[in-house]
Amino acid sequence: MLASPGRPSDFADGDDAWAFEMKWDGFRALAEVSAGAVRLVSRSGKDMTVTYPELQALAEQVPADTLPLVLDGEIVALDARGRPSFRRLQQRANIAKPGDVAAARRSVQVDLMVFDVLETGGRSLAKRTYDERREVLEDLLAGAEAPVHVPPAFDGDLDAAMRTSRRLGLEGVVAKRRDSTYLAGRRSQQWLKLKHAQSQEVVVVGWRPGHGERTHLMGSLLLAVPDGDRLLYVGRVGSGFSDAERRDLVTELGRIERSTPAAVGVPREDAADARWVSPRRVAEVAYGEWTGPPEDGPAGDTPLGKLRHPVWKGWRRDKSPGEVVVEHPAG
Description:
Blueprint: E1 2-5, E2 18-23, E3 27-34, E4 37-42, E5 69-76, H1 86-90, H2 98-107, E6 111-120, E7 123-124, H3 130-140, E8 148-149, H4 158-167, E9 172-177, E10 187-195, E11 199-209, E12 218-227, E13 230-237, H5 243-254, H6 268-271, E14 275-276, E15 282-286, E16 289-290, E17 307-308, E18 311-315
């Protein structure tokens, strides 16, 4: 079940019908627990089990009579202050070879933030309400120990929850209707996410080299979002990368090059020295605002305009291009 972008006005009738959870900046995962083993599956169905071996600890923390068990949660990498760091998590993503996993694990540990339970004892709880599932979850993992956590639902109103989230250095909150059932794989208005800063998932469709002495590095990535059966160009991002990341991106994107742009609406000045790539990679950027469609003519292939002042956050290797949606800003 996926949350939709929310606005404060969505709660005009009061907060009593909603529970508020902190929003964790990580990779969404289903944890399928059987006797002595945990299988981790991404939103797109990718098996991530070998990438995060420390999360096998979950199998030892649930009662045997509740198996098989399916939990919903977020894989995060915490910084020294206990806050999720998406940049740190990137160092653990998309690794499968045991030696590579072990090396990455020595520098970056991950934790699992569990926020829902979908099955216990092989029986689906999807038609139970949020409050009922939450009670089951808290009983199941009452003695949870790191790297497994059940973050508490916030007891208060939206404003207080957002203030707490900001104070803790978190991304925002997710509001969930207390009477909502679980709709697997579907985006719903029963769950709403509200962020402190605006961010947008994007599909990378190309890159431009740097200038001067940096022509061997990636200078900026060209970005798009889905619009029906096409991709709309929404600008480029050149901020937020280290030189090492810029160098690695040249190699990584070189493996998926193509001769033509996969997106429509790319202006001539951005296309001039572009290297096009197949639209397989999803990333996330922070941004200031959408510029909106041009004022001097029809929107055509640029109905959204561009992302203003985008800054790189990282790859979303847990997501596929088809899962990207435009997250209009809250207001």
